Amino acid sequence: MSILKKGLAGTPVKILQEKLGVPADGRFGPQTEEALKAYQKEHGLGTDGIAGPDTFASLGLYELVLLKVGSSGETVKKLQSALGIATDGKFGAGTAKAVKTYQAANGLEADGFAGPATLAKLAVFTEITPAVISKSQIDPGAAPAPQAPDETPVAEAAEAPPKSIWATIKGFFS
C-alpha cells in the first residue's frame, strides 16, 4: 500500500517530514511518528501514525497520493465518484479495472494506479497541478534513499509505478 509508516525511508518520507516540521532526514522514526499522530489528532484523521492518501490530502501533499488495490478512505471515495462507480471507499479489483479503462481511454499509462496524473485528468482534486504531477516523479539525479551502512533493507517499494517517487521507498530496522 502507498503509505508511510515507522521503519520506512526515502524521498516521500523526507517530503512528509518537511511538511510536519521535523528534521528531514528521510527516515521515518519515532519523532516523525509522534509529529504525524499529533497532526492527525488535530485534524480529525485516524490517529495511527501512518500516513496514507487521506493524510497526504489533508497535508496538501498531493504529490504523495497514490491509490491502488488495498487503498481505502475518503480519497478513494472521491476517485470512485469521479469514475462513476460505487463509492465504498475501498480500492478493489472493480476500482482497478475502472481506473485502467479510464487511463487507456484518456491517453494515460493504463497501470491501474491512481496517482497525481490520473487524479488531475479526472479533476478529482483541483489542487493537483502540472507542478504537483512533476513533483510526484523521480528526479533522475536524485540520491537513493538514506541508509546507514549497518542497516539491512527489509523492503523496497513494491508495485510502485516506475517513475513514481514511491519507487524510492526502502525499509530499515529501527
Automatic annotation (TrEMBL):
Q: Where would one find coiled-coil regions in this protein?
A: none
Q: Which domain of life is it from?
A: Bacteria
Record Gene3D superfamilies: PGBD-like superfamily/PGBD (1.10.101.10)
Compositionally biased region (Low complexity)? 140-160
Chain spans, region Disordered? 139-160
What Pfam families does UniProt report for this protein, alphabetically? PG_binding_1 (PF01471)
Domain Peptidoglycan binding-like: from-to ranges: 22-59, 84-122
Cleavable signal peptide: none
The protein, known as: Peptidoglycan-binding protein
